Amino acid sequence: MSSASSHSPGHQKITVRCLLTCVLVCLFVPIVAQKGQSAHERPVAAAQNRIALHDETPGHCFAFVWWNRLEWDSLWQETYTYSPQGQVIAVLHDAFASGVFIPFERQAIAYSNSGYLSERVTQRWVTGMWTNAVRETWATDAQGNDTLRIAYSWRQIQGQFGWDTTSGDHSIIAYDGSGQITNSETSYWVAGFPRGHWERLSRSEYFFDGLGQWDSLIVSSPSGNAWVPSNRLVQVQWHDYALGQRSGYRTQYYQGSWIDAQRVSCVYQGLGSNCVSESYTNNAWDTTYRESRDFDVEEHLTQWERQEFNNGNWLISNGGKHFYTYNGIGQTEQVIDQSWDPTIGYLNAQKRIYDSFFVSATTPQVSDWAVTAFPNPVTDVLHIQSRTREQVCIKVLDMQGRMRMQATRLFAGECTIPISDLLPNGTYFYQVSSKTGQAQGKFILLR
After folding, report:
1. Which residues neighbour 251 within 8 Å (Cβ) at sequence distance 6 or greater?
2. Which residues touch 37 (CB under 8 Å, ≥6 apart)?
3. Residue 285 has pLDDT above 90, yes or no
4. Residue 377 contacts residue 444 (beta carbons within 8 Å)
5. 66 class by beta-carbon count within 10 Å (0-12 exposed, 13-18 middle, 19+ buried)
6. 181-190 and 197-208 as β-strands: parallel, antiparallel, unpaired?
7. Which residues, at least 6 apart from 87, have a Cβ–Cβ distance to it below 8 Å?
8. Whole-angstrom distance, CA of residue 164 vs CA of residue 151
9. Backbone φ and ψ of 37, nearest 5°
10. Mean pLDDT throughout 232-238?
11. Taking a C-beta distance cutoff of 8 angstroms, is the pair 27, 94 a contact?
């Protein structure tokens, strides 16, 4: 057993903890990636591949709790393992059951030489052992857009277990000289025996105005060896092209000629937007619904509502509100989400709490306290003991100071950290931090 020494590393982020809570009802509220637009309104000309780098998940230790019987109950927690380059290479998901966290699912993640996500393998804990479940692979072009996505399931094939392709998308993308997408063709994987095949799905072609902004889009469907127009977007007007914010457009479908289907107009005021949709029926435009979005100065979505137009009245059919609070240096401390219930109104849906602790010359000093860790050397699980009883963040660092693992734990005398199989044998540091103190120690990993 080794006793940890107290330590206060200057100018280093100690922890970020995120608690997600569901209250009374848990209704999904769409997350809008671009200010002032719903998901179906966003331009598809720049669908970037996901890059799970450390700067996108800066020290997040996630622990989730659920509202149950009017009390907070832990739901699940995740532990992340990082590469020396700061990429998330493994995720361990523990479920909370009967007062303890138990293994549920884990993922191993790989990246291309350019840093884009290339493979993710998911395993689930079944009858005391890890079992393969899902494998996903991606390919990207030079611009970082996904060109190939394939999903596999682990199942028995001709008497032996192996990966079997179950679904996939394949895209061929063309660009102009400025890097904008001019057209793309998408195919999907059709499973079959003894083997499946790729089948063409759609073709999209973009047209640009004199300013270099696309103002129309034609989507075609396959017919034999040819492409036949099926629908299009026309009269596309932009509020902010760089941010992908449209102020208006019209959709049409093709039946020998182009027939109007829908038109949308958006008004942007201050930090919000209001978009009204109309459908074309009986040779006239009929108002159908409107969507409004409000943002704070940090461009966080604070309110979203969809209202249906019925008999001359606007009725809320779906919506959400989001309330943000920040600490003194502008970091998010808490987010409360509410969802719309047509019989009651807005109800609390979920709450996320971020505890961001910094140790520097300008932040208040907190007391140091000692912890002990064992065994040393470690083969698979590191046990950490302390007299404190509170939520803590635990990080594992290599000898170069690079974070390789992190997890949030509720200290109640002792907690355990399963050491990832991806970490090689060697000497590591662990850091334990909370609102009341921090400590660190050293251990040797020897399998």
Report:
1. 231, 232, 233, 234, 260, 261, 262, 263
2. 244, 245, 246, 273, 275, 293
3. yes
4. yes
5. middle
6. antiparallel
7. 52, 53, 54, 109, 111, 115
8. 8
9. -140, 145
10. 96
11. no
Cβ within 8 Å of residue 385, ≥6 positions away: 371, 372, 373, 374, 413, 414
pLDDT of 105 > 70? The answer is: yes
185: enclosing H helix or E strand = strand 181-190
Whole-angstrom Cα distance, residue 259 to residue 331?
A: 49
- With cut-offs at 50, 70 and 90, classify the pLDDT of residue 239: very high
The rounded Cα 168 to chain-centroid distance in angstroms is 20
Contacts of 44 (CB under 8 A, 6+ apart): 181, 204
Q: Can you tell me the mean pLDDT for 203-229? A: 94
pLDDT of residue 230: 97
* DSSP code, position 378: B
Helices vs. strands in the chain: H and E counts, helices first:
0, 30
User: What is the average pLDDT score of the chain?
Assistant: 75
Percent of the chain at pLDDT above 70? 75
Per DSSP bridges, beta strands 12-22 and 60-68 are: parallel
Residue 355 — very low, low, confident or very high, per pLDDT cuts 50/70/90? Answer: very low
Residue listed under structure tokens 């502008």: 330
Tally the residues of the chain: 447
Structure tokens at 406: 């992190």
Write out pLDDT tens, residues 55-102: 333 333 344 444 444 555 566 677 778 887 778 888 888 887 777 788
Amino acid making up residue 424:
P
Cβ proximity of 420 and 90 under 8 Å: yes
One-letter amino acid identity for 100? Answer: V
Instruction: DSSP letter for 212, please.
Output: S
Q: What are phi and psi of 41, to 5 degrees?
A: -95, -15
Which of helix, strand or coil describes residue 156? strand
